[in-house]
Amino acid sequence: MGSSSIGYPFGISSRFDGKFNSRSEITVSALPCKVDVSSNSFFSASSSTHKECLNRARVCSLPNTDEYCDEKVETPILDSIETPLQLKNLSVKELKLLADEIRTELLSVLWKTQKSMNPSLAAIELTLALHYVFRVPVDKILWDAVEQTYAHKVLTRRWSAIPSRQENGISGVTSQLESEYDSFGTGHGCNSISAGLGLAVARDMKGKRDRVVAVIDNVTITAGQAYEAMSNAGYLDSNMIVILNDNRHSLHPNMEEGSKASISALSSIMSKIQSSQIFRKFRGLAKAMTKRIGKGMYEWAAKVDEYARGMVGPTGSTLFEELGLYYIGPVDGHNIEDLVCVLREVASLDSMGPVLVHVITEENRDAETAKSIVVKDRRTYSDCFVEALVMEAEKDRDIVVVHAGMEMDPSLVTFQERFPDRFFNVGMAEQHAVTFSAGLSSGGLKPFCIIPSAFLQRAYDQVVHDVDRQRKAVRFVITSAGLVGSDGPVQCGAFDIAFMSSLPNMITMAPSDEDELVNMVATAAYVTDRPVCFRFPRGSTVKRNYLVPIGLPIEIGRGRVLVEGQDVAFLGYGAMVQNCLNAHSLLSKLGLNVTVADARFCKPLDIKLVRELCQNHKFLITVEEGCVGGFGSHVAQFIALDGLLDGNIKWRPIVLPDGYIEEASPNEQLALAGLTGHHIAATALSLLGRTREALLLMS
Length: 699
Prior knowledge:
The chain is of the alpha/beta class. It has three domains: 76-248 and 315-367, Rossmann fold (3-Layer(aba) Sandwich); 381-535, Rossmann fold, CATH 3.40.50; 560-698, Rossmann fold, CATH 3.40.50.920. The chain contains 28 helices and 21 strands. The strands form five sheets. A seven-stranded mixed sheet has the order 11-10-12-13-15-14-19, with helices on both faces. It is globular and about 85 Å long. The two termini are 19 Å apart.
């Protein structure tokens, strides 16, 4: 691993060489299965036998360690693949064997990432078929969801770096900076069709003939941008292919199975007919003939065509036709022969306009093998939040929850099961979630709108006009705030402090620990005349075996002093208060007694507390896990206008660097950002003129 350096004021430098140790917050209770099979057996065995061999296990149990079993499953076909183009030399039978090898390889690697494996495993055959038919990187394949891309990364020789996901390592999302096989940077969802359409139009204007394929799943397709893109694609009539990877997940678990698209021999035959050149040419000829006869005949024929295809296709298939996309499907996403057949026909057609291929995959096919193998031994902030919210909801029947984002935190299931009629999961429809919450508030309810920080960015216009401007009492719960470890810059919550605290009517607050979080839930429930938001990070709480108490509302705009000291005051916001306390401990060993204060609120700011800190200290250091323009900027605005900067106080902010911090462990990211207790303490030492001690502290 390489090293990187980030400079900080006052001669302090953070250098990261990959040696930072992070505290483990999980206990490994079991490991994936491994088996030794001779290389010859892979080619002599049938696909079913091959899969059966790979599923035989020698279970390895290594609690509390990151080491994996020394045995290595042999993957002869996969090992022979240097580039995706080599797939074209394989037979369909060998592709099936390769799918089994990739599935085993992913199982042996992805357990270290603590991520759900099912979406990746379900998309293996689809990924193979796409690379088998198309010529990447000449042809462009855009992946919408991170969870679908791991087989793609395996085929492009990047899978060995997936478990670490460290700084300067592999990205958790597709990235053009990482590989020529990644046609566009994705990860936050629903942008593949828009970007793909842009690539298709640019291709046409430059006279090129490459294919463009956008792969989207039935979670990210719930976002409005996907439909805006499909509507525009239908209008422009540009040649592009949209793959809807339907893994049968629904936001409504009680939805009847009968309403889902199903795979049968008839549907397989019809998909092949629909995609065939003969059928498409016949359909095009019929359109041309009816146009010549007259507009009335053309419109009548179009209605007959739509009705007939709607009768054959699954429920909702005509929606894509109305948007201007030619619908093909459903296709069995685990049948490589059918996938290759359909995709070959679609790829061979010129001037076909946008096509949507509906592919059905089953995530639970590998549920037993891919079930979670890590067990948390620490409670998370999300756990405490949900328990506190349940307590408030039991007292107040008007409290409801609206959740939006790519995936729901498992802890929210507790609230969903306890109050099923008061829980609304809208998926990746953040704009709708915000305005829906505003409507609930107007109707006399108390909505808690739960959205991860990075996804709340999508709905900022609705936050401004539908909530803040109208002073609607919506309670925004901003999860995954700050740095997010292996999810890197795509889901990093760096900007919410700045963009939420800039709104005139918004109360913005952040808890320093789980006790404060519980109290802020009660505070948010108590506020009924304007919007309020609070943020909390991913990860474990400060205390172990924490029992959630009854929450007590906090006085709006009132911070608190945690430790009294002199000369230097640390004013922390949110989770960074803990790092300020760590810095206090380090400085105490050097004979320095500094003040540590918990701001609690960014807006309204506790101006009395800030004024006292400035009057009683020589230096004020604000610390936040957010970008420039956030909490520190509000403090600076006040002390400048109040004339405090004209006196003896010197103010220094510590914020996230003005850039994107890539994937790494949480501790490594904090070190790169200069937000550890050591960095905060070193900043104080440098201000006091004790530069040598500051450098020693950082060495």
